[in-house]
Amino acid sequence: MSFREQFEIPAKYKMWSMILMAVGLVSILVGYFIYGTGDEHANARFWAVLLYNSVYFLLIVNAAMFFICATTLAMGGWQMSFRRVAEAISTAVIPIGIITGVILVALVVGHQHHIYHWITPDPNDHILMGKIGFLNPTFFIVWTSLTLIGWIVLGAKMRSVSREIDNGGPLSEEEGKKYIFKNTIWGSLYLVWFGLTVASTVPWLWFMSIDAHWYSTMYSWYTFASSFVAGISLITIYVIYLKNQGYLELVNQEHLHDLGKFMFAFSVFWTYLWFSQYMLIWYANIPEETVYFKHRVQGPYRGIFFLNLIINFIAPLLILMRRSSKRNYTLLVFMSVLIIFGHWIDFYQMVIASVSKEHVELGLFDFGVAAGFIGLIMWATGNALSKHSLINRNHPFLKESIIHHT
Amino acid sequence: MAKKKFVVGCFDDEKVLFPAVKKVRKAGYKIHDVYTPFPIHGLDQAMGLRDTSLHTAGFIYGITGTATALSFMSWVFNKDWPLNIGGKPHFPLPAFIPITFELTVLFSAVGMVLTFCYLCQLAPFVKKHHFHARATDDLFVMVLECTSRTNEADAKAFLDSVGAKEINVQEAEDGWWLGRYAKDQKLYSTPSENSLA
């Protein structure tokens, strides 16, 4: 049996990634002239749309690297047959990370106080003054840069460690042990950095500080759960796409079943955090805390707020519960697209509902920018896939993945 | 319970067992069950067993738990004994969710354990026939049920040809019964010339 190890980008795929990127670019330009040059409110909308789209797509491609490192530390073998796909998706962290960094720095340097009103705090505002050690432009810019550099550098190291055994023969037992240890070291370094950023500080800085007076201890985990379940969905879509193109012969229903389990489990995990955050605030009913949910549950965002829950909880719970649906490629692709869209809506309401509290604006501009980022992910992932072998052929755990059985 | 006649073949290797199961099924013998010391991946497919319906039962138990919790709490707080707790509405759904969740888990867990025991015919005081005591140690025991069309000698010869190390014919209860084991059935007899090595 021969394997198709080298991915060739189909012309159609290339065309679509270009079209989507062009749509995104045009949307940003047109959006700039419609909103960006308008009054303060329109200007804030322009930047808020850029903010939530760039951060959302950055976090879901970054979740692919988190998936690799977490499974590496867990000594997982089942993911080995499609690990290169997750690696390829994680290369998109580089371009999207740079774009996100530019947007975030522009927000702070450009004094977008409609979005981040902590940039110019009132000296009499003792809450903001109390947080000034964390919420100040210098720390924001330094920490954001460190975060992005950390993800890019450690991610690139993980990918190069994965590729360094491609051209030799099979590893001996000693070499294999050393290799796994090396993987573990770099994977755990990445995870520590991930924990210090995505699982704690970064959602506070980038998103929660939009409501600078309010805070929730659930917020970072909630953001992480959102991005991880959408990241797994993205990996699933790519694995099924490559299988349909005739690649990844070693991946079968068993691996898809496990990816489906991840989607199901982390949808429920996301709901757990969503509910924990909501119920405690609802129960205590303290005005300083309920201010976050006031316009979401009882205001104009009510529809989107509950749509979010239906798409991201009810639908995965009921549809992905059955074993047969996790083994059905078509249904899995449908659910992946639904989940990615659902968490995009989630990020939308996390940012926009805080920036423009009075009325809902969700239009072509939002979808156009999102299309641009999707095109960028397609372009970066396609390039990375075509550069290296699709199979990690000398990895000591590869056999475990081939005979994987749920 | 009905007494039936079984042809029992014992295998000492998984690699022999799998092809044997396939060949026995192809030859048209009725496999009563295969007893193994540990769970074997893929053996259920090889034996042609259908997927278990335990998860469907679990789902139904879970839904029952959800319905029980929600209906009981709303009956208590709306009809039987309405209380004003911290100015919350009489149907405070978020406050009900944790209890609903717990009851869903409790119902499905307890229900599934009991269903599992029922499906495996496990219960206190219930006895089942052991075809070979070493099925819990190091032997894979395949049991063929004799129907009206089964020729015992043929079945024994066939089991021998697919690699069974030890073959015998037993008459036994095919299900469970309450009470004692028959006096002449020794579960852990001393090794004889009949057993392996």
Architecture overview:
- The complex is a heterodimer of chains A (406) and B (197).
- With 406 residues, chain A is mostly helical.
- Chain A has 15 helices and no strands.
- In chain A, helix 2 crosses helix 8, helix 3 crosses helix 14 (364-387) and helix 8 packs antiparallel against helix 9.
- Chain A starts with 10 loop residues before the first helix and ends with a helix.
- Chain B is α+β, with helices and mostly antiparallel strands and 197 residues long.
- Chain B is built from 5 helices and 6 strands.
- The chains are: A mainly alpha (406), B alpha+beta (197).
- At the A-B interface, helix 9 of A face helix 4 of B.
Supply the key terms.
heterodimer, A: 406 residues, mainly alpha, 15 helices, globular, B: 197 residues, alpha+beta, Alpha-Beta Plaits, 2 domains, 4-stranded antiparallel sheet, two-stranded antiparallel sheet, 5 helices, 6 strands, elongated
Short recap of the structure:
The complex is a heterodimer of chains A (406) and B (197). Chain A is mainly alpha-helical and 406 residues long.
Q: Secondary-structure blueprint of this entry?
A:
The complex is a heterodimer of chains A (406) and B (197).
Chain A: H1 11-36, H2 40-73, H3 83-90, H4 93-109, H5 126-130, H6 137-163, H7 173-206, H8 219-244, H9 253-284, H10 287-297, H11 302-319, H12 323-326, H13 329-355, H14 364-387, H15 398-402
Helix pairs in contact in A: 1-2, 1-14, 2-3, 2-4, 2-7, 2-8, 2-13, 2-14, 3-14, 4-6, 6-7, 7-8, 8-9, 8-13, 9-11, 11-13
Chain B: E1 3-11, H1 14-26, E2 30-35, H2 43-47, H3 54-80, H4 93-119, E3 126-128, E4 140-145, H5 152-161, E5 166-173, E6 176-178
- Which ranges of chain B are low-confidence, i.e. pLDDT below 50, for 5 or more consecutive residues? none
Order of helices and strands of chain B: EHEHHHEEHEE
Count every helix of chain B, treating DSSP H or I runs of 4 or more residues as helices: 5
Query: Which regions of chain A are unreliable across 5 or more consecutive residues at pLDDT < 50?
Result: none
- How many domains is the backbone of chain A divided into? 1
Supply Rg of chain A. Answer: 22 Å
The major beta sheet of chain A can be summarized as: none
Sequence of secondary-structure elements of chain A: HHHHHHHHHHHHHHH
Q: Provide the spatial order of strands within the biggest beta sheet of chain B.
A: 2-4-1-5
Separation, N- and C-terminal Cα atoms of chain A: 24 Å
Give the overall pLDDT of chain B as a whole number.
87
Main interface by residue count: A-B, 9 and 11 residues
Count of the domains of chain B: 2
CATH class of the largest domain in chain B equals Alpha Beta
Strand fraction of chain B equals 15-25%
Instruction: Briefly note the structural class of the backbone of chain A.
Output: mainly alpha
CA gyration radius of chain B, whole angstroms: 25 Å
Which percent range describes the beta-strand content of chain A? under 5%
The gross shape of chain A turns out to be globular
Number of strands of chain A: 0
Overall pLDDT level of chain A: 93
